Amino acid sequence: MFKEKTTEEIQAASRIAGTSKGAVYNNPRYRAWFYQLAMMLGLLYFFYSIISNTLGNMEALGAKTGFSFLSAAAGYDVLMSLISFDATDTYARIFVVGFLNTVLVSVIGIFFATVFGFIFGVAHFSHNWLIRKVAITYVEIFRNIPLLLQVFFWYFAVLSALPGTRESLSLGEAFFLNVRGFYFPRLIGEGGSWVVYASIFVAIFGVFFLKHWAKKNQEKTGEQFPVFYTSLGILFGLPLFFALVTGFPFTIEYPVLKGFNYTGGITVIPELMALSLALSVYTGAFIAEAVRAGIQAVPHGQTEAARSLGLKENRVMSLIIVPQAMRVIVPLLNSEYQSLVKNSTLAAAIGYPDLFNVFVGTALNQTGQAIETIFMTVVVYFILNMIISFLMNRFNSSVALVTR
Amino acid sequence: MSVIEQQANNDDIIVIKDLNKWYGNFHVLKDINLNVRKGERIVICGPSGSGKSTMIRCINRLEEFQKGSLVVNGVEMIDDVKNIEAIRKEVGMVFQHFNLFPHLTILENLTLGPIWVQKKPKDEAEATAMKYLERVKIPDQALKFPGQLSGGQQQRVAIARSLCMAPEIMLFDEPTSALDPEMIKEVLDVMIELAEEEGMTMLCVTHEMNFAKTVAHRVIFMDGGEIVEENTPNEFFENPETDRLQLFLSQIL
Ligand SMILES: Nc1ncnc2c1ncn2[C@@H]1O[C@H](COP(=O)(O)OP(=O)(O)OP(=O)(O)O)[C@@H](O)[C@H]1O
Ligand SMILES: [Mg+2]
User: Fold this and answer.
1) Distance between alpha carbon A314 and the CA centroid of its chain, in Å?
2) Is the ipTM reported for this complex over the cut 0.95?
3) B52 in ligand 1 pocket by Cβ < 6 Å?
4) What does each of the 253 residues of chain B score in pLDDT, given as a tens digit?
5) What is the C-alpha separation between A145 and A286, in angstroms, rounded?
């Protein structure tokens, strides 16, 4: 096979390497480190020169720099805020308001995108022709239209077509939908309501405990306990039971029509509805594709092997197909979630007060401090996406396969 | 047609009568009649596309058929989940490409059926699993994943996985044809042992003629969706009756 090396050849080779052990600068590991270090220094210098240059230019123009503007009064109001806010509050506070609004729309978007994605992704495999076609059409339509157009569609075409305040669509005099938003009742806890809150916690712990117990019990006795339905029962039943026992220590604040508008209860402004709808429907189409790809990536032989063991169809799905499909789906979910967070900046187009809109939009305009506002905003999106990445990577390693 | 005329009797664990199957317009199984006695070992061979896989896959309902009847262990194969489940519990299947569950360890592959179908406690299922892993001579691989095993080892695990369900009948669909030559023997050895020691009812699609001669009670030749000829291994190989079988044997031997 291989010719034995002669002594001369070996000596020649070590002469080339300098020493018989090989020089440090020829070691591939050290080389890799060195290149990375050099690259990093280069990048640092690049950004440093851009920033110092810009700051220098701005100073020359007499513009303010630094973060002192954060404690100044913003002087403008926002459409919607999860914490109290008025025009006398600071830029720092408006930063928090925008941040919370971004997180809110992202969480809503991610939740519904996941729900839509899994429903339509699985529907692709339905034996029902109509359901299958609906799933395919959904994906094809919403994946292929620019997101900005979809945001406008929901905001200007759908939500603006809703009736005015006086002709609101209503459900049981508690839920109202009109061109100004969606209104629903708010529960306000009174003395004694802590018992109910506590029972919610207990119920959640109870479900974890039940799951653990059911697994152990199955291992011991082989019995299969209906964990899912029992959990549902506990999660809803326990708080309901305590609410009844304590004589319902809540007041329900209904939205009521006062003058031209509804007050009281909780209001979802149309900007939030339109943006959440657009983000979740659009991203849901991509997630549906990911789910479809994931399920299709599991060879049919897996289903056949599971069936021939006598497993019921739902077990074939939950024990064999889904766990394997997840290894394809999870990395794709990660990037879809990250896109959704970044795409939420389209809020600016319809005036939803997300971080980008209130900070890079209004605050930058008013203070002129581009570097600072953009930097702070970039850091937020960066950190949000790092968090998503971190969580999804944890999830991913729990579904990863071991191979040779 | 056949030398051994099979009469339906109480010992018949599989009774297939006038079974027909079509894929669209393509008539893939034509009037299949086959009775299998309890403990009988049958080898099925025939050219590619002759319907061998399709026929044995009908037995555990991996394929549906359109005409005829099929009774397995006294249960008729009809469009009823209860019947299908009852039959699948009695029929184990080993595939050409092993089809182990890659996300589960070897041990979990083996205990999945006993735990979720037979509702056995985990300890008991694991004890059974280890017993069968010893039988197929790879107890030391129990905690590895399928991807970490060689093809021959994977197929032995697949056999053990079926055996853990204690089936009455084992179906093998070309269990060695995806294996490298040096691994074929280790799998065949396990199957021969299984045949001789357990007296398991076996239907095996294979072209391993030595295996057929060693363990089969009966060899069946299929061509064009029909059972063309069946006989004891000796007669089958020494005195093939039909031209089609003669041609086939001349090609593979
Ligand atoms: N899902 C299907 N749809 C249409 N035709 C099919 C399908 N599955 C199998 N066939 C056809 O049915 C015939 C019988 O297939 P089968 O797999 O049973 O053959 P086989 O005897 O097992 O062949 P091989 O030795 O290649 O495995 C073949 O002609 C095949 O092309
Ligand atoms: Mg075949």
Assistant:
1) 28
2) no
3) yes
4) 333 444 445 679 999 999 999 999 999 999 999 999 999 999 999 999 999 999 999 999 999 999 999 999 999 999 888 999 999 999 999 999 999 999 999 999 999 999 999 999 999 999 999 999 999 999 999 999 999 999 999 999 999 999 999 999 999 999 999 999 888 999 999 999 888 888 889 999 999 989 999 999 999 999 999 999 999 999 999 999 999 999 999 988 7
5) 12
Considering only CB atoms, B99 lies closest to which of A219, A304, A401, namely: A304
Question: Which protein residue's CA is at the shortest distance from atom 18 of ligand 1?
Answer: B51
Q: Report how far residue B91's alpha carbon sits from residue B171's, in angstroms, rounded to the nearest whole number.
A: 7
Cβ proximity of A139 and A285 under 8 Å: yes
Count of CB pairs separated by less than 8 Å, A with B: 90
The answer to whether A399 faces chain B, any CB pair under 8 Å, is yes
Domain ranges, ordered by start, for chain A: 7-57, 91-148+272-399
For A263, left (φ over 0), alpha (ψ -120 to 50), or beta?
Answer: beta
DSSP for residue A90: B
Per CATH, the number for A91-148+272-399 is 1.10.3720.10
Whether A8 and chain B come into contact, CB under 8 Å, resolves to no
Candidate from B20, B25, B28, B43 with most ligand 1 atoms within 8 A of CB, to mutate:
B28
Tokens standing for residue A212: 């653990």
**Minimal CA separation from A336 to chain B, in Å:** 25
